[in-house]
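ok so for the tutorial part 2 we go from a plain amino acid sequence to predicted structure tokens. step 1 is just haveing the sequence, like this:
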Amino acid sequence: MKKQILLILLTGIVIMNACQKEVSTETGDNPSVGSLKSDVSGDCLPKTVNGTYEAGTALITTTNTLTVDVNVTKTGNYLIYTDTVNGYFFRTSGIFTTNGTNTVTLKGIGTPLGAGVNNFIVHYDTSSCSVPVTVLPAGSGGPAVFSLAGSPGGCSSATIGGTYTLGAALTASNTVTLSVNVTTIGTYTITTTATGGMTFTASGTFAATGVQNVTLAGSGTPTTGGNNTIPVTAGSSNCSFVIPVSTASAGTLGAAGGACTPSTVNGTYTVGTALIAANNVSVQVNVTTIGTYTISSNTVTGFSFSGTGSFATTGANTISLNGTGTPTTAGAQTFTVTYGTSSCTFVVNVAAAPVSDYFPRTTNSNWSYEFDDLAAPGDTVIRKAISQTHSAIGNVYTIFLANDGTGFDSSGYYRKSGGDYYEYFDAGTFFGYDAPSWGEYIMVKDNVPVGTNWKSAGFAGTFTPTGGSPTPLTLRLSYTILQKDVPISVTTSLGTVNYTNVIVVEEKYEQQVAPGTWQDITSIVGSGKSYYARNFGLIKYEGFDATGAPSFLMELRRKEIY
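step 2 — the prediction. this is what the tokens look like for a chain of 562 residues:
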């Protein structure tokens, strides 16, 4: 059940829209949707810094650029930009015409004020990632002078990253880190001699002298198994490092062509429950050639099994295939596992999901609530689920009706997918916009831990305060699991009822003030807190004003769940 924001409070956030007007002129009326690609530390991945950066020298927009990758989920206009650091920044705009990975180049603008490493934050839609840029001291923009550690023998302290397999193309994980001694700062490029189908390169800027590390990125596909000695030259120094390339194993699965023999299925499997480390299957392989292996099954009703590793001996080897995914169908599920040209099958028995619903939607289920501990006992509002459904945006929703004393009328549209509970609603009416704006949001999740936060999509509209001018707004809902499976007592005029397995969800509101930048407006419009009990639904809702003081209370008085 949606809790209405007081429309008069929205007047306060009209003053926060100056930034949005500039953004709208650049992103147009059809903004794209997506996210910047980044690694676990928040660095843009991949990222390329182009050009030389020298203190006091103005950037050249065609030379001084940043290149990043964007995963586009909805085509349209885009604006990608960084903050301003040390007197310069990067920016670009345009139109994405295809979904998926798009590589974008941002132009550098400005003049670096001083030397050092500048960390830029790149912004797009609601995502961000970081890119470091090294600025050289004034007058030192030429090539660096340095030597490779270990020259003229083996590269000292070379660190090999990633695994290397014959015939498997190198990826971003395949790197080599070398130690160098820099005597003159400046730009550098290090490239190895192509050996065994592989090449390693790095380029950038040394901003300080002394010993430091450089990471070379690998490319190509290994063509020679065993140890590959890779020579590298930089200036008058040279050294070499060794890349061990594994060969692929060969063999057949036990009882190839029929049931995998022997095989053991481990762990329990239940509809709707994601697989964990305990969910694995042991199978036997008759190995004829030692080496690396990748063995996998097909995907059946939402889950599958796979394993990678190396065989060190020929003959019978037992390996474990790890399960991933979430079963969607109960019963005996038959999997086919493949290795080389052989295959065999095994069966996994999946149990039906236990009955558990934090917002029941069964026909004729009904609930009555009291508001604000009314002195006169009685139902303030009655809600019920009916058999009719509503179809919208490709989904089917259960229709709820409510009666506040004036007769039953529409009271929301609800559905559940996995552990997510959705409401389809008119955001225009909810936020006080001038026109309707229908969409859905997730109001509660029952399969995530305490502290989990999720946000709705942004709902755009125009808000006209009394006596004011129309103002465009984009708002969204933000939810956080505060408590999970806790006991909660609810006291109404009928007495006290104790509920177990209650999920407590905090509801807040955010406004988009710039592309990818959202501001919490709790201090302007207040917040809410919902209590959902397993197999009973919403048992309590608390509203709080902009100061955090209680402003509204709704409690479940009686219920019938069918």
